[in-house]
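Hi team,

As requested, here is the filled-out complex form for the aspartic acid run. I kept the field names the same as last time so the parser does not choke. Let me know if anything looks off before we queue the next batch.

— J.
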Amino acid sequence: MARLVMKFGGTSVANLDRIRNVAAHVKREVDEGHEVAVVVSAMSGKTNELVAWCKDADTLHDMREYDAVVASGELVTAGLLAIALQKEGIAARSWQGWQIPILTDDAHGSARIMDIDGTALSEGFSKHKQVAVIAGFQGIHAESGRVTTLGRGGSDTSAVAIAAAIKADRCDIYTDVDGVYTTDPRIVPKARRLERVAFEEMLEMASLGAKVLQVRSVELAMVHKVKTFVRSSFDDPADPKPGTLICDEEDILEQQVVTGIAYSKDEAQITLRRVADKPGVAAAIFVPLADANINVDMIIQVVSDDAKTTDLTFTVPAAEYDRARTILEKAKNEIGFADLHGANGVVKVSAIGIGMRSHAGVAAKAFKALADKGINIRAITTSEIKFSVLIDAEYTELAVRTLHTLYGLDKP
Ligand code: ASP
Ligand code: MG
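And here is what came back:
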């Protein structure tokens, strides 16, 4: 007997037929004799609708009430799944976040889980032989007694945190794809499902735009060493495929240098020309952007011809491009730059792999391959296990395909 957490995302619970299908997946595990806690998302599209209603009611709404509204989507699916399970003759009950309780801080709209008391859930297993159906994405701030939500995509995090709290043997994240791929299969048809991905690689992939898992859920899985699978609820419930295991790097036998290629489309580039090369200038540029909650990503500084000034290039999310430009133009005199150039709609393509730690020249190979295809690189950043290049959007597919082939990911 094992203890399992099974998480089902929005497309897996999109309507009653899909919820019955989830019940069949759960029944399979119960019939095997396992103790099961299920975590559900809201029906797909529901949370967007609820968010839109809050904005419509008042653009500057009270975030505590926003949480009260958007947490409701998961309450519906948790209750409906419990009913569907009972209909199959399986003992089950629904749990709202506060009933467990899942304790969070009070950052409404993007709260962090502080603690989960697993006692009630464990009692449900041992005393009542009961499946726990838990509303994902939500918790409670103990001091104020208010309902909180964990940020978009947060039910992944609920699932992993619950798995850690009840010491589950496994956390299965069911979604509409059957695992983590070497890259986006819509761009590269030769993309392959990975059998295993290291936590750190998954963390990079999730941060770099692969939308399978919420970043925070991967952090939690890594810290608590939760054995996490990404798999499909669209598989036959009687004969499902195992999906992709996210695990410690020591558990990966055949290590590739590069495991995956990710891309993120919504980037913008800003270049400040001839900035005075003196202490405090970087702060003068980036502090106002940080104060405005604008996330700066790649930063590159080069010395200009005259050696007294410098050129600074960096990226911001495309949605923040206009705001960032306005802030910088306003601070032009304080910063002291000659002019501002920018490009919206540029793309960041990244290669990720823990093998980069032990291999030299991995990125250099890519620069050559991209140059051979006539792709101009606007900026580069590297870290221990990934490198990213910023390119023009029209070359996204070509660049992703080129790197996928270059690092031997096309071949099985
Ligand atoms: N329903 C929430 C959302 O759409 C949480 C989740 O699906 O993970 O963001
Ligand atoms: Mg999701």
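Two things worth flagging: Residues 16-31 form the longest helix (16 residues). The chain has a mean pLDDT of 94.

Thanks,
J.
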